[in-house]
Amino acid sequence: MTDFNEYFKSAFTVDNVIFGFDEGDLKVLLMKRGEEPYKDKFALPGYFVNPNEDLDAAAKRVLEQLTGLRNVFLEQVKTFGTVDRHPAGRVITIAYFSLIKISHFTLQPASIAESVQWRSISEVRGLSFDHDEILSACFDRLKWLVRTRPVGFELLPRKFTLTELQHLYEAILETKLDKRNFRKKILSMDLLIDLDETQEGVAHRPARLYQFDRNKYEQFLSEGFSFELKENKKKNKKGKEESVA
Fold it and tell me: 52, 64, 142, 192: least buried by Cβ within 10 Å?
């Protein structure tokens, strides 16, 4: 006879990986924990799922309670269930992620979050629990999405240059892209509207301004696309190719 009580001794948590794009830099939202374990250490915004709560609802509730962020679209990425990932016992966590425009949201730390802050993703190391692994998995998911969907275009100003768009992709993919190939690919998708305007008040030569074609954008979101991007490369002294700015 199976003792089902043995199977009801695990706890569940949700952890939110919120990426933000700001002035050409890709950042992730972290909180400083106000309780043990890992008190005063940085972690992803996450906490326990209530016994009578759906997972998606828990992710939204926890994010709002800890950071003040609401009305954020969260996508479930992966479940992490290593037996010893939490010092208090068996805790299984479900990771969610989102990509938002930082300037559109105000942070309000509460509950176990002593503080919350945006940190450049290139600087994040040594998070609590297995949150480095969770962050890495969600970052890989974001990189995959940016090659298969027009992800993140809404993070740019309403009118933007092709250089600003390229910087968005470079920040997510963590690589320099060939300028000519990038522009050729973007313009061939017929996704942009040339506004026949140029930048104003800039010290350099004003660049052309574009807008997204919202109808085409929605079509791409539903159908997907293959956005293969070529890195800008040169040969080093040993004859091998390497990425360059």
Answer: 52
